Amino acid sequence: MRRIATALGAVVTAGTLALAIPGSAYAATGNLVINGVGHNNPSGCFATGTLASLIVNQTDGIAYVYSDLNCSGDVQEIIQPGGTALAFGSSVYIG
After folding, report:
1. May I ask which residue range the UniProt record assigns to the signal sequence (predicted)?
2. pLDDT tens digits, 49-59
């Protein structure tokens, strides 16, 4: 009986990991353009290089503009897929 419980626990754990890992590897499809520089199928955090940035979100993901570097601080702007914004922040995150 103990072996069955151990095996069942391992199967449940493996199933949970299998469902969690694909979400973390997701990259937006399309182009994220920050001040004229394109990023194809972007994923992660990008520095804007300036305080005021023109951001064009031509992806299927939502872009979040953060006040500080490394996508920290407060969210200053949320740019929906297909949206464009003149945003004031130091970094952009897209998943």
Report:
1. 1-27
2. 988 999 999 99
Look at the pTM and tell me if it is higher than 0.85: no
What is the C-alpha to C-alpha distance for residues 5 and 61, in angstroms, rounded to an integer? Answer: 41
The b-or-e profile of 75-85 (16+ CB within 10 A means b, else e) is ebbebeeeeeb
Rg, the chain, Cα only? 19
Sequential DSSP letters for 21-52: HHHHT---SEEEEETTEEEES--EEEE-SSSE
**CATH assignment, 27-94:** 2.60.20
Question: What are the domain boundaries of the chain?
Answer: 27-94
Which helix or strand (DSSP H or E) is residue 15 part of?
helix 2-24
- 61 CB burial (10 A radius; 0-12, 13-18, 19+): buried
- Phi, then psi, of 51 in degrees rounded to 5: -75, -45
